[in-house]
Amino acid sequence: MEKTTLFDKIWDSHVVKSVPAGPDVFFIDKHFIHEVTSPVAFLNLEKRGIGVKNPSRTVATPDHNVPTVDQDKTIKDKLSRMQVERLRENCAKYGIELHDLGSAHHGIVHVIGPELGITQPGMTIVCGDSHTSTHGAFGAIAFGIGTSEVEMVLATQCIMQSKAKKMRISVNGTLGPGVTSKDIILYIISKISAAGATGYFVEYAGSAIQSLSMEARMTICNMSIEMGARGGLIAPDETTFNYLKGKQYAPKGADWDKAVAYWKTLKTDEGAVFDKELVFEAADIEPMITYGTNPGMGIKITENIPSTAGMEGSNKTSYLKSLEYMGFAPGESVKGKPVDYVFVGSCTNGRIEDIRSVAQFVKGHKKADNITAWIVPGSKEVEKMAHEEGLVKILEEAGFVLRQPGCSACLAMNDDRIPSGKYAVSTSNRNFEGRQGPGARTMLASPLTVAAVAITGCITDPREVFAN
Amino acid sequence: MAYDKFTILRSTAVPLPTENVDTDQIIPARFLKATEREGFGDNLFRDWRYDVEGNPKKDFVLNDPTYSGKILLAGKNFGSGSSREHAVWAIYDYGFRCVVSSFFADIFKNNCLNIGVLPVTVSAEFADKLFAAIQADPKTEIEVNLPEQKVKLLTTGEFESFDINEYKKDNMQNGFDDIDYLLNMSSEIDAFAASR
Fold it and tell me: What is the ipTM, given to two decimal places?
């Protein structure tokens, strides 16, 4: 029998039809929608005079533009309010499940999907958001789509996609202390560049990946898009099954046993061929930080910003433009550079384990005076746990400000903006120009590094703080 | 939704050689708050095009009257980052019908094809040649011929072929979109869903 990859198994079983010399008609199991990329799709359905084919396969939540304060009140920003209201209207009209602001399971779409057990191995999952790749952590094919495709899924439960090439990235061995899954993915992207996996779907494998918790795996898959990959996935295993067991939408009883039996078949056959294979050693990875304006511009905190040696033409011009925006010079160290804001949150690192690790790190300490520290839970559920576990108290005593769930300062569609020229060390996923507000300077790092920066007020290797 | 048919486009081009232009630059997140698809062209490259007071920045290419046209000649890895289709809406709405680059981000490219902006991938060498020609003479015309899958520098006749799958090519030439196709195979999709 032909040896196939995990990606092949899931993809091939969802192809309704292959268009000759064209894409595949690809069946979608679960579709997540939010307020920003769905309204025009619904509007177009109306223009075409058609409805939603299978509302039970779509789940909605407002997350991108929502305020992270006073969520029980009317949204002040008119345009944001209109988008959220439109989402409510569309969900009511077509019978789509909505986890609205203030409800028990409101949150960032990529946080609540797994949390509710909606995300399951073997599924095909799409959403009008590039970080849909997060759900790949469960051994699902999950990727971001544009609004035209949101419309396609609503109308037909299918999209038209060409199958991506396959890449396997293995990370072997054991991570050192103070090194997290965020550092793994920032390290990989720094090695292969922000376009290094364009055209590929990535399977992450190896002992360092297998040893990670589900939440840590989600952080890795989440940032697959930041190296250009269509998505990333990890074969499901006992860690996956244990996470899902008992979740609201996870199968129960005999259905559970049947599901697990199927999920256990979801792995790459030994000898299956990938179009590209990369192997990294966990021992080579250290706490990482970005210094430029795309996620590929990352270094170990102990390293210097690369010099321009060997660069020429538009490559060099683009590099220098990026450093100028950041206020950095080629060849210099970032360690000790003063910082103004820290942000803990987003679909990358806004889960309970992230908040636990920050709280554990800062317990009994105070943030530096020059730092404004925001912590934004990924969902109501995460917020609730953070309160129940006493983490909020620890963080507030350390001087962090807790806000309500949402995408928040990751993309600054609401008022959670970093002022122009200020530096933010952020657990989010993108350091693009203006991403966290016009003129904002973003440096991406792990929750541990962010915690260390909050305490010292400058770029700091978390391994050097509280070395005990 | 249906868009203008694309066959042969002859136009001058606007050069933007910056590499890794992400969709947050093409249209910043704060301009995504619309519930209808209109007015996005005004905010195309907003933060590169205007200062904080909203005055045009003289050094940005869209504000330079020397350059104009329906083709955007872009640097390597154009359209990375967010899946926001609004980025392509902004490009289309501004008046571009074609983006030429040596490398596109995946989702961006799909989004282009879905709304009728033709993404043309050329070799890095040919891209350099196009940039140089436009730099030498901003009135240089480029021909993008979809039926023949060729992009040609009209001044010298130099050309390069580009790839596009037959299905998408047919869609672009006829102004069709994928939903037309999918709606026509509704019963096949139903049968597939029932078998799962």
Answer: 0.96
